[in-house]
Structure prediction request, 265 residues.
Amino acid sequence: MVAGADGRMGRALIRAIAEADDLSLSAALLITAHPELGKDAGTMAGTTALDVTLTADPLAAITQADAVLDFTAPAFSVELAGLCAQARIVHVIGTTGFSEDQNEKIRAAARHAVIIKSGNMSLGVTVLADLVRQAARVLAAYDVEIIELHHRMKADAPSGTALLLGEAAAQARDVQLKEHAVFSREGHTGARQNGAIGFASVRGGTVIGEHHVILAGPSERIELSHVAEDRAIFAHGALVAARWGQGRKPGLYGMRDVLGLDQLR
Prediction:
């Protein structure tokens, strides 16, 4: 099932499922009443008709599904997590911008459902975060700055991906990101604080997503970057996660689990 089927990612997910040989779309869910309601999901997404009618009834949609692919909004994702817990099915969450209270509700739902949650479903970004983790650990005295660029319609800042990368650096240095993150600088700020993890957000045009992690040390600088050229990469990663989640024990997982990065140590 695809939640938020009328959104940019929802349409990309429907097209990706239509192209997959081993998957089929069970339901396509709209968050609210929409002019497309009742129409065919495949036609709406710009692919062939899939004989799946767009619906606004989450409970009915979930009863038909083995997995929910969810790039919607935090409050709706929390609602879906509870329904997935009741149905004991896989919930892939690509939504960002959760509050701590919402994250706690998702953790509670994960006691009964396989929930795979990530600030970015791209396989490349998952590997980038692992590289950031390694670099931040080895170069523990280097300053970390994260610059992210997104389209003008992006609702949250910093992006979930930027926070994911910041968390990777913080975990590598055994510190809490919330205690070391610097989200804005203006005026006479004084010298940079040791151990700070800086963020800068740029919004404009139709940029899908760019993330640059800078580790700046004495007389040298390392830059690790990822550029998204098509939303299909996020849809592809979400499908990989949905496949991986089938038959797993309930729990809260991330894309590092899906790719088995811990096993490569």
Summary: The mean pLDDT is 95. The radius of gyration is 19 Å.
